[in-house]
Amino acid sequence: TELAPPSTEIITLTRHVLAEQIHLGPAASGDLTLLLNAIQLTSKFIATNVRRARLINLVGLAGDTNVQGEEQKKLDVLSNDIMVNALRASGKTAVLVSEELDEAIIIEDRYKGKYCVVFDPLDGSSNIDAGVNIGTIFGIYQIRPDSQGTIADVLRPGSEMVAAGYTMYGSSANLVLSTGNGVNGYTLDTALGEFVLTHPDIKIPPRGKIYSFNEGNSLYFHPPTVNYLNSVKFPPAGKTPYSARYIGSMVADVHRTLLYGGIFGYPDDKKSKQGKLRLLYEAFPMAFLTEQAGGIATTGTKRILDIVPTKVHERTGIYLGSKDDVQEVIKFYEAEA
Ligand code: AHM
Ligand code: MG
């Protein structure tokens, strides 16, 4: 039998986003497409460096500490520089917020555009040296109608984002994106240098079989978290307990949750009173994707995307994933109230 010829229908990320924008009619200027092109480029560049890190001595510490007082890895610093430079040069941004930078960057007039990008250039960096998956997370706002681009343009609820996504650097580089019209996943074809549509219209299964928490924090967990975890580990007779999967790299844990379903949680607790993960560039983009894929993202008592940030590096507790699973957590919070 003859082999089927290779498909000639290659849908790249740019083609896909352009097609979506065309549907919006003349109002769409193509600026978002250009901005997303800049983000794609940075992801390709970071992916290349992540892959070569060990060989070109990028692993280890850069000898600096970031805003949260953590040691920066060389790759964090590099990834941050790559993103700031490319986003500024795109001419499409007005405000940039990076996990690695204390203050927001207000783009100078000559390069100013109408979008604000909040990002964690390399999330999960404690995993770098072990070769575990890490990723870039980003969220995009449009500046408010009469604004020149100030911090107020990013201190807005996540529901006002126009796009959000992440790139996971694993066995392949996967970019998962939503422009508010569902979620699509693209895989980097290194030969073409293009992100190719491989996971169209990702939908989270309404219920999963996996829970993903750092249970090493159990001593500090509040009762609703403890009660929920007990319910999935010790279900009523006849039901099967859930499997535990925790990579400790948000991008990888969320990626699995989007594809397989289940629940990922990093709740606030007695030790991390505000939670650990950052609202703007970790929780918001992941909550945006989760909802766009048909799931739920909550603090336990409040929808993540409704939170109004008061500072750029604000933290939050978060549970996200399959609708039915996350609803159960919410019930444990209601029972406690
Ligand atoms: P980072 O931004 O310093 O890399 O921290 C964020 C990471 C997330 O990727 C992950 O979900 C979480 O921290 C893991 O935290 P822990 O090691 O406390 O389980
Ligand atoms: Mg991070």
TrEMBL record:
The keyword Cytoplasm applies. InterPro entries: FBPase_C_dom (IPR044015), FBPase_class-1 (IPR000146), FBPase_N (IPR033391), FBPtase (IPR028343), Fructose_bisphosphatase_AS (IPR020548). The keyword Lipoprotein does not apply. Residues 204-333 form the Fructose-1-6-bisphosphatase class 1 C-terminal domain. Signal peptide: none annotated. It is an enzyme of class 3 (hydrolase). Keywords: Carbohydrate metabolism, Cytoplasm, Hydrolase, Magnesium, Metal-binding. GO terms for cellular component: cytosol. Pathway: Carbohydrate biosynthesis. It is found in: Cytoplasm. PANTHER family: FRUCTOSE-1,6-BISPHOSPHATASE-RELATED (PTHR11556), FRUCTOSE-BISPHOSPHATASE (PTHR11556:SF1). Belongs to the FBPase class 1 family. This is Fructose-1,6-bisphosphatase.
